[in-house]
Amino acid sequence: PVRAQSGPVRIAFIDPLSGFMAPVGDGGLKQFQFEAERINAAGGVAGGRKLEVLGLDNKLNPQESIVQLEKAIDQGVRYIAQGNGSSVASALVDAIERHNARNPRQTVMYLNYAAVDPIFTNEKCSFWHFRFDADADMKLSAMTDYIKGLTDIKKVYIIGQDYSFGKAVAESSVKMLKAKRPDIEIVGNELHPLARVRDFSPYITKMRASGAQAVITGNWGNDMQLLIKASSDAGFNVPYFTFYGGGLGAVAGMGRGAVGLVRQVTEWHSNIPDIGMDDIVRSFKAKHRDLDYYYYRVKVMFDMLAKTMNDTKSIDVREVATAMEGAEMKIETGMASMRKDNHQLIQPLFISTLAENVKFDVDNTGLGFKTDVKIEGPATAMPTTCQMRRPAT
Question: Is the pTM of this model over 0.85?
Fold first, then answer.
């Protein structure tokens, strides 16, 4: 049995480590390793076992992700983590469901830290999948509540990446704006190829011609950076409502022109005052000068994983998954709880705006984010259509 082993508990990190989106995957991997070291330094899990993170390159490709998943399983890895690309997440959910049905003694758990298509905690929910980032609808609900109060905004342009997540963002943006601000006109709603566009200036020209007074985008990685850079270069200075405006390289690409204009909805940013995170942020920065401590949710994920392994004194996937359902934990920003009905983590969300004169900057630019509004966890929860099928005991 699993309990008899004494080696490390390995987590396979399956994300892009080469190609156009490699910086995003690499930044995530470094933070995963940082959190594993932090847990190990505090005594490890389940009676002193160490956590070890294995980086596997999926080239942002669903098929390649399945190859890497199989490679990890063959090496005895039972914990899989992924975040970039809901198309990849979809393939992993299906493959893990199939594997676990066929191999009930070697079940695998999927820790999703960033793939936010709402489908994974609704009709495509799985007992083996746990999401630690707020889904696109949760984020958009917070964002559109905020936009509702900005009465001078009458024309909005929606732009996103052409795959399931980008489509989900566009659809929900239209629906929520219509319900909350029927007077807002959506003057553009378009999708562009994921990780393919090198020059966004033609899109900016269209936005400007449409008379847009604000932009909503779910773009991430280079697609976020280059979009905002093109906007900045063209002097198209309108508010951008983003999920990933603080993501790696985005602020460096935007520059000072984005101050006061780029907003993001996230589970945290490093300038939330007096929550006791400053030392962690500083020690991560000391280790990785070119990176920011971006994924607070990865810290929450590791803390919850360690807690469930310590509470159950087990690293058995089924025992850990069962204990994680409904788990609650105090975190620096408030409370975190893992919904039992659909495995969506509930935690506070923050809307913040890019600003000058901050304690912690982003991308070594001297610019960082300041909170506009905090939404407590329970207020972020959305109804779910998930009908969780639990494994027979």
Answer: yes
